[in-house]
Write a structure and sequence with these properties.
Helix content is 27%, strand content 26%. It is α/β, with parallel strands linked by helices and 346 residues long. The protein has two domains: 92 residues, Roll (Urease, subunit C, domain 1); 228 residues, TIM Barrel. Strand 1 and strand 2 form a beta hairpin. Helix 3 runs parallel beside helix 4 and helix 6 crosses helix 7. It is globular. The two termini are 30 Å apart. It binds zinc ion. The site of zinc ion has 6 residues, from loops.
Length: 346
């Protein structure tokens, strides 16, 4: 198998904080075989030498990819996305297609429809096409829906706990969804909106929140319990699109305390929900800093996976050192997805 490599003047491999001078990453097929300081005898058939900063490519853990341009997302440095709510007959075939190396976009993993109560969010949301919501009535039906989504290739189960915009699944349905999903090895991601909904998610064993909670200031006790069991997908910029808002201030306050309590945060933008650039979203990164993450933590939250043997060969070269200036991630010079060099990066 052909072994390809990129040698860059500087880089970060995604695990330790160390920034290396003269770094080399080599891969065969779609997987990394070597990553570290440059050494002459790499065994690579082709070495591309670039002047720039190399790092793992980004993953966006909350998108609605059909509302965006997948090719532009990829060229903006994001090689993997997770679609959190879309009609199953549209998103699962697209996710399958995205696994083909010639697909001009990121690798797509999908939750399919959001499980909700009859008439609940997002069945009435204006930007959600029919099928984005799936109502479940009773724990048996809820568990059956989870099994069906798993069989369709769902990478996660999304559940709507939006009490501000309609009825939500009851506690019995919620428990059945979590139990069945965990039985099948799938994480449960909740849209928690409205008073007490984060506590309901915690009580049922939800694994992730699709958004930093923004509708109420969480109690310190809730924050502590959340930090021990949940991952939060950030989606901060969608709360203001560049403007300060009370919702954003509440979310930042919750995130700071969640982070201080040791909670895990993943980068996610809710791409497709309002005006937002495709690719790495610099305002989201800046808000993660405001939310109490160090630069190294922001970068760790952003990348798909550290570059090490066996990891996906998904990497970027950008124009500067993001540890010095996060905005360097807006200057993407080169993208490799699954071992394939993406051409025509603007
Ligand atoms: Zn969303």
């Amino acid at each position: 198998m052909t072994r390809r490599a990129i040698r860059a003047t500087r880089g970060w491999l995604g695990s330790a904080d160390a920034v290396l001078d003269d770094v080399l990453v080599a891969w065969e097929g779609g997987a990394v075989v070597e990553a570290g300081p440059f050494r002459p005898a790499t065994g690579a058939d082709e070495v591309l030498e670039v002047d720039g900063f190399l790092l793992p490519a980004a993953a966006d853990r909350h998108v609605h990819i059909e509302l965006a341009d997948p090719a532009a997302v990829l060229r903006g440095g994001v090689t993997a996305v997770r679609d959190l709510a879309w009609p199953p007959e549209r998103i699962f075939p697209l996710a399958d297609l995205s696994e083909v190396p010639s697909f001009d976009g990121p690798l797509i993993r999908a939750a399919g429809p959001m499980l909700t109560a009859a008439g609940g969010y997002p069945s009435v949301a204006p930007c959600a096409p029919p099928g984005t919501a799936r109502a479940v009535d009773g724990p048996e039906e809820a568990a059956a829906a989870v099994r069906e989504l798993h069989a369709s290739g769902a990478a996660a189960i999304k559940v709507s706990l939006n009490a501000d915009e309609g009825p939500t699944p009851g506690d019995a349905e919620l428990a059945a969804i979590c139990d069945e999903a965990h039985e099948l090895g799938l994480p449960v991601v909740a849209h928690a909106q409205g008073r007490g909904q984060v506590d309901r998610a915690l009580g049922a064993g939800v694994d992730e929140l699709a958004h930093t909670p923004w509708t109420e200031r969480l109690s310190d006790d809730t924050v502590r319990r959340a930090a021990a069991t949940l991952r939060i997908v950030s989606t901060l910029d969608v709360l203001g699109h560049g403007r300060p808002t009370p919702e954003l201030a509440t979310a930042l306050d919750n995130l700071r305390r969640f982070r201080a309590a040791g909670g895990r945060v993943a980068y996610g933008t809710d791409l497709g929900n309002g005006p937002m650039p495709p690719g790495i979203h610099l305002r989201e990164l800046a808000l993660l800093l405001e939310g109490g993450l160090e630069i190294s933590e922001v970068l760790a939250a952003l990348v798909r996976a550290p570059l090490q043997p066996g990891a996906p060969a998904d990497l970027l070269v950008v124009g500067g050192d993001p540890f010095e200036r996060l905005a360097a991630l807006g200057d993407v010079r080169l993208v490799v997805r699954g071992g394939r060099l993406v051409d025509a990066v603007a």
